[in-house]
Design brief:
Layout lengths: L3 H10 L6 E2 L1 H8 L3 H13 L3 E4 L3 E4 L13 H7 L3 E4 L10 E4 L4 H5 L6 E5 L3 H10 L2 E4 L7 H10 L3 E3 L4 H20 L3 H4 L1 E2 L6 E2 L4 H9 L5 E5 L5 E6 H4 L8 H4 L1 E2 L4 E2 L4 H11 L3 E5 L5 E6 H13 L7 H6 L3 E3 L2 E8 L13 H19 L3 E11 L8 E11 L3 E10 L2 E13 L2
Parallel strand pairs: 5-6, 6-7, 7-8, 10-11, 14-15
Antiparallel strand pairs: 1-3, 2-3, 4-8, 9-16, 11-12, 12-13, 15-16, 17-18, 18-20, 19-22, 20-21, 21-22
Helix pairs in contact: 1-3, 2-3, 6-7, 13-14
Length: 435
């Protein structure tokens, strides 16, 4: 049986795109408290099926597919530029395909504008009206207003016309940053991208017998299966090892592993894979916030996803990418790493930041471990201390030294030098795992 929370989410998903919703409306329609309705609407916002806009309200929007995540809705543009809606509120949920800066003659400008575009322009009323008639929304910069005729036209066409106090250059920079950030987000694989959905997941009820499990298990190649209640709530997991030697009349709930390690659909694949390796398990159930089974992922799913991700072209660089790209290998000293301190790696004092050094040390240590032992490693704990500030522009060398290596762990000591002088020290404990 579905919970009130899930019923509200289904209700919201059933609303038309562009429809406004409120806590009071949802509470009245489904006979729930305002608090329950509020929490469900916040969850719908996290799932990107609604968007809350200041002075406008909460609007049902179309959930963007991952491959189109680099597109923004006009509602998101409104929030980014801290704008005011002058007209066309009914179109805030729509997605823009591109933005055009109107710093040219009208005839030249119109060659670049088509339906779904966003024209960024000042108080040029003719350009604003022409863009709306072409099917494009308008972003008016410099805090200018629009005429009443243009506002009325925007309402009729359901194409937003937004005013912002920022200048054109600043607005374009802000939108570019937002699109770039979403390109980075696009690269991050989530569990929901690779899970086997509930409809295709083989599961057992806790009151079924070991005999039923054996019959199903013989027909598949799986090593484990989730165990649920009639409501669909996950209560355990059963593997071949659990059932071996048990009487066939024994109930599954008596032999299963209770409180299994689970993941949610929004967890990153990298995090889920790390948990699998750390705990030594091959299968993990995927659950909702209320503990209901949503599907499963296997270690094989994670490995395939990681291999696919490595083959994809780079879309956007994270800070980690920028920092790691500075590392060079010193000729004739393969263990030593060299880098130059660039502005992105500094703190407010203009010296190398603790976070950047952490990333550089982790990467240099990983390389050293790989050269000694084939396989992967994950840092478990780390100790770092600076002896001197490492200034912007400094050329720095990291010299890792493996102190001890066992089957599961390795300790690495680091000397960090600049201009031949020791400027920092560190020690990292890595956990090892085979490929």
């Amino acid at each position: 049986m579905a919970t009130k929370h899930e019923l509200i989410l289904r209700y919201i998903e059933g609303l038309s795109v562009g429809e406004k919703i409120s806590v009071r409306q949802v509470a009245k329609a489904l006979s729930v408290s305002d608090g329950t309705a509020y929490r469900a609407i916040k969850e719908a916002e996290n799932q990107k099926i609604v968007n809350t806009i200041e002075r406008v309200g909460t609007i049902r929007i179309e959930k963007k597919k991952k491959e189109n995540i680099e597109r923004l809705t006009f509602a998101e543009v409104l929030n980014i530029v801290d704008g005011t809606v002058l007209g066309g509120r009914g179109g805030l949920h729509k997605t823009l395909t591109k933005f055009v800066i109107g710093a040219m003659q009208l005839d030249d400008m119109m060659r670049y504008i088509d339906a779904g575009s966003l024209l960024i322009v000042g108080n040029r009323f003719k350009a604003q009206k022409t863009a709306l008639l072409t099917g494009a929304a308008v972003l008016v910069t410099g805090g200018f207003d629009a005429s009443e005729d243009i506002k009325k036209l925007a309402d009729e066409l359901e194409l937003p016309i937004i005013s912002t106090s920022y200048d054109t250059f600043t607005v374009a920079t802000m939108l570019n940053r937002a699109i770039y950030d979403q390109l980075i987000e696009k690269e991050i694989l989530l569990v929901e991208d690779i899970l086997t959905p509930l409809a295709e997941t083989i599961s057992f009820l806790s009151k079924e017998t070991v005999k039923v499990f054996n019959e199903v298990n013989h027909k598949t190649t799986h090593t484990g299966f989730p165990v649920i209640e009639h409501s669909g709530k996950l209560v355990g997991i059963i593997t071949t090892r659990d059932a071996i030697g048990k009487p066939e009349t024994e109930l599954i709930e008596k032999v299963m592993t209770r409180r299994p390690i689970t993941v949610t659909a929004k967890m990153s694949v990298a995090s889920a894979g790390h948990s699998m390796i750390w705990e030594g398990i091959d299968l993990m159930p995927v659950v909702t916030d209320t503990g209901m089974l949503a599907g499963i992922i296997s270690r094989q799913d994670v490995l395939k996803a990681m291999q696919m991700a490595q083959r994809q072209p780079q879309q956007g660089e994270t800070i980690d990418d920028i920092v790691k790209n500075q590392i060079k290998t010193v000729p004739d000293e393969p263990l030593t790493a060299e880098f130059t301190v660039i502005p992105q790696m500094t703190n407010q004092l203009g010296s190398l930041s603790y976070g950047a050094l952490t990333t550089l040390l982790t990467e240099a240590g990983n390389r050293a471990v790989k050269m000694r032992k084939r396989g992967e490693s994950v840092p478990e704990n780390m100790t770092i201390y600076f002896i001197k500030h490492i200034q912007l522009g400094s050329v720095v060398f990291i010299e890792p030294r493996i102190l001890h290596m066992s089957r599961r762990f390795v300790k690495v000591d680091f000397d960090i030098l600049s201009e031949g002088e020791l400027v920092a020290k560190a020690m990292i404990m890595y956990q090892l795992f085979e490929r």
